[in-house]
Specification:
Blueprint (H helix, E strand, L loop, with lengths): L1 E4 L1 H18 L6 E7 L3 H9 L5 E8 L14 E3 L9 E9 L3 H11 L5 E9 L12 E5 L5 E2 L15 E3 L4
This protein binds inosinic acid and magnesium ion.
Length: 171
Amino acid sequence: MEVLLDAAAIEQRVAGMAAEIERDHPEGEEIHLVCVLKGGFMFMADLVRSMSARVTMDFIAVSSYARSTKSSGEVRLLKDVDSGLQDRHVVIVEDIVDTGLTLIYLQEILRARAPRSLRTACLLSKPSRRLVDVTVDYVGFTIEDRFVVGYGLDYAEQYRNLDHIAVLDGE
Ligand code: IMP
Ligand code: MG
């Protein structure tokens, strides 16, 4: 498979995003990161290791594409966060924003829980595929409309373990 982003490029950009997130939050205040499973797990793990602020973490899961590479447009909550968000500085940590439907749904349900602030960090963005106008505060890399795998992202649950981002063969 063609390597789109190698491990070194990702490492450097993720560290930069961690610094941006810390800069945007009041010093000394806790940052609560909500990782979107499963795709966001590796990004989350690297992001928090680059942060020196006080952080807490939680995990949420929504329905994904299953075995297709095209979005169904249907979003379903599979696993909710474990703790409340009221008055906390929340950052959604997501692997990729494609049509934006997943993210807009997540932002809506999390905003309803009255966090002090709500921001979103996505490692990847495919703006050409956007169907809804969704705000992403931190974007790692903007990419073309190609199906990518690795660094948490899958195709039929495969390739999540790659330390880099590759373009799926045949795309
Ligand atoms: P959206 O709702 O269309 O923005 O889709 C977001 C979700 O679709 C992401 O969280 C991914 O899980 C999945 N997704 C979108 N594009 C890709 C891709 O190129 N590779 C792997 N998963 C993708
Ligand atoms: Mg995802």
